Amino acid sequence: MKEPDDQDTDGEKSVTSKSDGRKSLRSSKSESRSPVQEDNTFLEDDTDETFTEGEGSYLEEDSDEERLEGSLSSFQYDDLQSTSVPQQTPAPAVEEAEEEVKKKISESFFYDYMELASMPFVTLDSNIPLDLLTLVHSFGYDCRKRANLQLLDDSIAIYIAGNQLIFLNLKTKEQIYLRSSSGEGIGIIGVHPHKTYFTVAEKGSFPDIIIYEYPSLRPYRILRDGTEKGYAYVDFNYSGTLLASVGSNPDYTLTIWNWKEEQPILRTKAFSQEVFKVTFNPDNEEQLTTSGSGHIKFWEMAFTFTGLKLQGSLGRFGKTTTTDIEGYMELPDGKVLSGSEWGNMLLWEGGLIKVELCRGTSKSCHNGPINQIMLYEGEVITVGSDGYVRIWDFETIDTADIIDETGLLEIEPINELQVDKNVNLFSMIKMNETGNNFWLAQDANGAIWKLDLSFSNITQDPECLFSFHSGAIEAVAVSPLTYLMATTALDCSVRIYDFASKTPLAQMKFKQGGTALVWVPRMVNFTGAQIIVGFEDGVVRILELYDPKGLTIFAGRKKILDADIQLKQVFKPHTACVTALAYERDGEILATGSKDQTVFFFEVERDYKPIGYINTPGPVCQLMWSPMSHPESTLLIICENGYILEAPLPTIKQEEDDHDVVSYEIKDMCIKCFHFSSVKSKILRLIEIEKRERQRELKEKIREERRNKLAAEMGEDGEKEFQEEEEEEEEEEEEKEEPLPEIFIPSTPSPILCGFYSEPGKFWVSLGDYDSGFLYHCEFPPCDESSDFKEQKDEPIDARYLEDTEDNPIQAITFNINKVMMFCGMKNGAIRVYVLNQNDPSLTSLVDYWHFNMHDNNYGCIKSIASSFDDRFLVTAGADGNIFVFNIFSEFMLRKDMKAKVPSPRFGIETEPIPEDIEDPKAYSIENARRKREHDKLMKEVEEIKARKREQIKALRNEFCKLLEMNEELPKHMQFKRTDFDVDSQIRAEMHRKTAFKIQQVEKELAWEKEKHELGLMKLKNRFRDPLENDTIVVHAILSDHKISSYRLVQPSKYSKFKRASQSERKPSKLDRFEKEGPGRKDSQRDAGGSVTTQEESIIEKGKKFRPKTLSEIMVENQIEKTRKLILKAERAQLKIQQRKKEWEELYKSKPGDNYEDPKDLQAIKEAQVYMGDFNLKTAPDYKIPEHMRINAAKKEEELGHLDSLVHGNKRHMNKCILSLRDLKVAVVEEIQCLVQELKNIQSTLHISKHIPIPKIPQIHPEEVPEKRFQYDEETLLNFKQQQMKSNDEKSPGVEETGSGGPGGGFLKLSSGKDGDLTTRDSISRSSKASTFSLDIPKYMEFEKAEPTDVELEIMKRDEIKHVYMQQYLVNRIKELVVTFDAELRLLRHQKLKLDTQMKLSDLHHVTLFQEILLLKNFEKQENILQERVNSLDKEEQYMQWKINETLKEMEEKKNEITKLQEQEKALYAGFQAAIGENNKFANFLMKVLKKKIKRVKKKEVEGDADEDEESEESSEEESSLESDEDESESEDEVFDDSICPTNCDVALFELALQLREKRLDIEEALVEEKKIVDNLKKEYDTLSKKVKIVATNLNAAEEALEAYQREKQQRLNELLVVIPLKLHQIEYVVFGEIPSDLSGTLVFSHHALRRLQERIRELQEENSKQQKLNKEWRERRKQLIREKREMTKTIHKFGYMAGPYGLEVVNNTAVSLLSFSISRSNGEEEESLEHKEMEETVRQLMISKFGRVVNLEALQTLSVNTTLEELKIRKLRKELANAKEMKMWEEKIAQMRWELMMKTKEHTRKLYQMNDLCIEKKKLDSRLNTLQNQQGNAFQGPREADVVAREKVTELIQLQAERISALKEEIALLRRKGGLILPPIQSPREKEIQPADL
């Protein structure tokens, strides 16, 4: 059925044949077949074959077509008329053919390939051989075609190349070709899942799908009429029985085929836009998926009431942007995973996007579209256009779901492979190599790769098997000397091929794509070793080809290739892409043309010195120099927009200095121009005129013959009659004659595609668009310099009609050497060869041709075509990326081993410098460089003028300054004011205003730059500075050269913070959670429910408690309490007996078995085995990894994080110490500065002879304060700017030096003048404190000097002594500070050296750990799978064991219940025996009544259904019958009646026997049920035991697999290299006293472990001796225990034998105490028999003295009270009380009812009186009424008004009922119909009006 929201799903279309019936004879011939029949006959459909319009039959013998000769009047017309040759097949034949098609096709039926394959077209009677061109090799690959790489087996790949299917042998690189059947191209190919068939889906008009058998390559089946123009994709289902195909534009038809029967099953339109792909779901072949432009669609083959249908559901993108979907994959559960244009994966479910998958931090899965998605071995593989192959976890994708509103889910790939840079993967296919995971990949950038996706340590790098051009081939050129050709394309490569040996030789890559290519002629380069290539950026490069084998071979040189290319010269003449290159016929001048509308000329002999250029009126598309036959050398320039120019040979100026030339433009060249004007409409008009003239002449001839005939027969009358008929015919012809075609000239000129010279001044051109279909012969008008090219209109002088080129013009033309064959490349990719006469420039022989489709018909336009130097080969290059090499028909056979000769290298080519290439597309062209040079020259002259003006201004400024100085020297009253010098004050104000405005403008202009650089600085800071915890600080010693540097410490790594759950940490299983949570929850719920019920019961009990008790209740309670005490007493006695039995059972259970081992001993043995001291090497093959030593990636990451944390902590601690040392040095320097200042102050007062040298103040190096590098000022910035300018002047402009060379360099250098300024507030305070030493120094006033007194001399002497001391003290203090600091530095340096050693070791350990992490991550996935399996099996085993334990517990409970029931039965018999008493003569009868087995019907369950009741009755009857049979079999011979109590027998005992019998039967039934349950539990236990064994086996296997995998992982870890530094004394492995050179067999062992092993040897020796002693002692102890056990067994056996007859299982306390005493004494006494006899006699005497005889104490104790009798008595008492109460209640009710009856009787009597009164009154009223009627009868003779009203009401009622009847009939009719609706009953308006009235 059609989906409601599926617009383009129209269900199944007709699957009848859609033959278009309009195929040309050529196409019909290629499609006609005569199938080969082996076993059965097979008739084909005979389809109607007609000619398409515009095509003529090449089979007709009498053709009316005449060729164009000489002039336009020579055109013939019949060849342009459409002809039709209908061939109708009789209807019966068609029906018979259809019936035959329906028959099953034989499995061995094949078609004939030679009749299917398309063949070349050859003009009739032309004698041109069909094999004129033979395909030799294909060098191209259509790498951008979808799914254009398939594998048939390990070595054969197939791909499409135009109209060929190529079979490529991957090993030998040989090619086999399969032709297209339609001749119009191949759409898509597909391979059968079994690799036994492959599909070729054609293109064309209603193309076929041909299925070939492999490896025979015979056509097996043909599927017809599947689409209109071509197929986009085909796919087999998983089993290979069905084939799905989808068509391309315009119909996009989706068809499901039963391909073996050549029958379509289903067909529908897939979508209204382009469809890329269709595939079957491999897990459900009834589901398909299609995807394409902006859509994805999900299909399902479903059965409906009209048959099998294709139902489609369009995927809805919702909030996600609509995207083209190239790759997708169906998941097993029906979901679909697709790609997107932006690289994310979309998971589809139910036609909607469930979730969008991306990588972490919202990065896309691929950088670009995902072209293919596959599921392989439980992993999802995605192939992206970014060149990556990524592997994803399938379970993560399959269970993915939305977690937030964004709809994105972040996942990470398991593995990824980057194939290479500049790779665009389009598709991949698996290679069937056993043991390898190799894939073939199609690279859309022109390559076929071999990829290894095993992702192991031995994974091979991606290998490029084949390399091709990507996209259209722009140009091809052939060597003039040998079989070499060169090609170029827009993929930026130039490639060289040897087409004789079918080998690609060399390639060279550039920055821009190539657009034109020419092989340098031999006149320029005799060896033919040079190629000139034009590129899309306007650059022209000259490349030199040489054989590198001719060079000098150096040692270590890489593999030598057969050919190599070297750049020889490069120049840039154009600013747009170069479209044409041409060498002058003498090789002197090179001309280059471009789309920039210029043609540049170069002088070849002078190293391609530029001559000049000319401008053209349009983009140049072709350049061609005149041949040698022309008298003058001219250049034919063909422009795309309809202009053709002829330029003469440019003049070469000898030895002229071109520095004065401003431009290279040549302005004085006389150029001829031909502006093509469309003449096609004129040609068609002339053809129509000539056609009508011919028809008129033919009619005149017929008329003349008729006139002569009539004149001969009828004379004058006949002539008159003929004249009248002739006039009528002329009038009719004038009326019927249609107007001639109008002259049409297209508004946009048709592009000129190609052309060539014919004669001097004449040429032929081929045009496209409207003017296609002809080859036009043109002639240049005379050169007129005054005329304007744009206004010029020229028409060709002649034209040649080209058959079938109306929409397929010629794109490229070339000739062979002798000009007898013209090779044409067509727009549709076909090759056409015209055979010409020699010396025929007018192309009069352009008639016969050979035509064959080779390249793709849609986009395979032939861009270039060339023949080899000897005309043996033809090379074509197409826009489809294919390069075909053909062998031209020749009488000479080609040698198979023919090979091209690569030119030898020139002498000194290896030492020749390679010219600098022009890689920048914005580089100046030759003309622009010239103009730039002139511009720079002009600017230099302007700058010189400015400099001169500045010098003049400077001189005037100096003169003004001198005037100012002279003014200042004058007296003040004579000086001029500063304002007096201003000529105009407003000028200065205006200058200041302008300056401020300019500053403001500059700030605004530089605001963006300022913000940009600030952001850049911030980013640099965030990226490089902020992650740093500590920068490198280098602290220098003061006196020595020692220094210490800190660690450059960054933030801790991710591993130190990252911690994930290790693999060994298992999640609690469901069973564990159930055990922890389940019972608790249930108990809590049960407790909650119980609490509610207990609350209700407590309320009820409280209500009862406060109600007073009656006498009867008190009696019942007393009786119950009495019985309860008796029962409680018996139960206590029985409980003691049971408890004693349990004690005995536990005692027996605790008895150890023969093979019992103490758990403590087992634990000790296990510990000894684990810790016994042997050291198992990890390299041992049998090494078993202990559980605590198993490692995974998580543990290693934790270990790596722990290492990083330790390293980081140690480095940070050391940095803190170094920073403290730096701060100490700063403090020391500050203190020394203060001390030196103080010392200077002291020395100022001392005599110079007593001065001590002042110590130098230590300097703070910039390295010691790196934070000051980030402090800068304006001076620093100016210095930095000067350094930059200086570096720019010194170095080339292209090289710039970024950053500073060392610490303190660049703009981060310490500001000048402030390097030593490190004083702080502390230092200032210290200096102030230190200055207190100088306070005592007297400051003498400046008085006149006088002789000091003695006191003053004494004071001065004391001060001098004090100052000398202080001077020495300060110097010593400074030395002490310096020495102390240096000592601290050396000590810390020693510690850092030790730490450096540890850090290096930790770095080595870090590398090892990281390698181990990488290795462990590769193992992690499989290990997780194995661990998960072990965990699941472990959980399952635990769960099964738990169920077994529960089953055993339940069995124990049931056994206990059975025991209780058996005990109840015993107690019942014992109680009955006690009730009967002794010496009762009816004891046997009553016992028989009690034990009799009778039939019983089971009670029906109240809640059961009727069926359950019947079943229970049947089952009970069956059970009762079984029981009766047993009774009959087991009963005694005598029969007695148990329904009647015998005489003299106690009736109460008889009734008791019957009641106890019912109770016994109940107990027996309960026993049977319990035994059944126990049996079922046993069966369940056995089943679970078996399952546990199986699970345990699987668990052991899984653990072994995990252990093997762990061992493999350990072996791989052992292969990693670990670096351990050792000293010589640590190496103890010596051979003959020397250390061997090979230490590979040594073992690195720690001293501690070695000492531990040695000590363990001694410990084991001591333990062995101890264990031997203990073993001997325990053997003796065991023998003694065995003897004691044997004696104990005998004692217990004898005592049990003695106690058995007397029922001593349960005795009174005295007997038990005696028994226990006797058993305890028996272990130590020897006379056992005497003790047993004495105990037996004692027990017997005690029983006789107490009971009078030996009795069973157990039965006696349990029968202390008759429970049944007591219960019956209580029930009887309660019944009597209840009956009395009920009788009292009924008596009260009877009294109440009597009173109510009396009241009712009284009321009834009153009603009768009232009725009597009313009857009397009625009688009176009747008599009065009769009297009145008799008196007034005459007054009412007419109809009464009441009757009239009643009649009207009845009439209305009848009408209403009739309306309702009709409405009901309509409703009944409606209900009888299917799908009828039940409407409410119809009510008439009258009824609606009546209803309220009735109410």
Notes on the structure:
α14 (1193-1243) runs antiparallel to α17 and α18 (1483-1491) packs across α20 (1547-1614). The chain has 27 helices and 62 strands. It starts with 24 loop residues before the first helix and ends with a helix. Residues 1-101, 1058-1106, 1292-1344, 1499-1506, 1508-1534, 1697-1726 and 1884-1895 have low confidence and may be disordered. It has a five-stranded antiparallel beta sheet with strand order 1-55-54-53-52, with no helix packed on it. The chain has a five-stranded mixed beta sheet with strand order 19-20-21-22-26, with no helix packed on it. A four-stranded antiparallel beta sheet has the order 2-58-57-56, with no helix packed on it. With 1895 residues, it is α+β, with helices and mostly antiparallel strands. It is extended and about 165 Å long. β28 (425-430) and β29 form a beta hairpin.
With helices defined by DSSP (H or I, 4 residues minimum), what is the helix count?
27
Cross-sheet strand order for the largest sheet: 1-55-54-53-52
Could you give the count of β-strands? Answer: 62
Spatial separation of the terminal alpha carbons = 55 Å
Mean pLDDT: 79
**Overall geometry:** extended
Tell me the Rg in angstroms: 59 Å
Q: Can you summarize the main beta sheet?
A: 5 strands, antiparallel
Percentage of residues in strands: 15-25%
Unreliable residue stretches: 1-101, 1058-1106, 1292-1344, 1499-1506, 1508-1534, 1697-1726, 1884-1895
Class by SSE composition:
alpha+beta
Helix percentage range: 40-55%
